[in-house]
């Protein structure tokens, strides 16, 4: 059975969640995944989808996925953020990562994005090499800044009196 790369369907979200967990395990954050299948289904396939996802599938088996969503750059205009690109370990090295990244880049251009951005862990040299080989710039002088759900609540309580 051949492998196809296609837009994800709502019914794929269970497999997508498994890939997300595999990535979290690889990134040494096995307990960090809080999203569930129902949330992915609602957020990706509701009236106003919050993300777009591509999958690499062999029949009903998902071997990889790339999840992205729109952003806006004050310097460039419309942009696309690639949240995660994962190929299951047993299917690496056969071109699925390249195929998924190509679909994301094509989707970005079709939707008027002037930039595609994503993060990669500084110790993930195979991923860094993969992206560099495809023309991506690795910006080592930027730090990722985040507030998690508790941080959002604490911020609003502390600094906005909410």
UniProtKB/TrEMBL annotation:
Species of provenance: Robiginitalea myxolifaciens
Protein name: Ribosomal protein S18 acetylase RimI
CC annotations in GO: ribosome
Keyword annotations of the record: Acyltransferase, Ribonucleoprotein, Ribosomal protein, Transferase
Family to which this protein belongs: Belongs to the acetyltransferase family.
Domain N-acetyltransferase: 3-161
Domain of life: Bacteria
GO MF terms held by the record: N-acetyltransferase activity
SUPFAM superfamilies named in the record: Acyl-CoA N-acyltransferases (Nat)
Keyword Oxidoreductase listed: no
């Amino acid at each position: 059975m051949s492998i196809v790369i296609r837009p994800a369907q709502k019914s794929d979200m269970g497999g997508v969640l498994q890939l997300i967990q595999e990535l979290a395990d690889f990134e040494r954050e096995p307990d960090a995944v809080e999203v569930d299948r129902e949330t992915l289904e609602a957020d990706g396939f509701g009236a106003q989808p919050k993300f777009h996802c591509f999958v690499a599938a062999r029949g009903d088996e998902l071997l990889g996925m790339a999840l992205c969503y729109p952003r806006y750059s004050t310097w460039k205009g419309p942009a696309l953020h690639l949240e995660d690109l994962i190929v299951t370990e047993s299917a690496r090295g056969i071109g699925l990562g390249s195929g998924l990244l190509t679909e994301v880049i094509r989707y970005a251009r079709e939707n008027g994005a002037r930039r595609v951005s994503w993060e990669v862990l500084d110790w993930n040299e195979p991923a860094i090499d993969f992206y560099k080989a495809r023309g991506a710039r690795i910006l080592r002088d930027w730090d990722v800044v985040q507030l998690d759900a508790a941080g959002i609540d604490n911020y609003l309580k502390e600094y906005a009196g909410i």
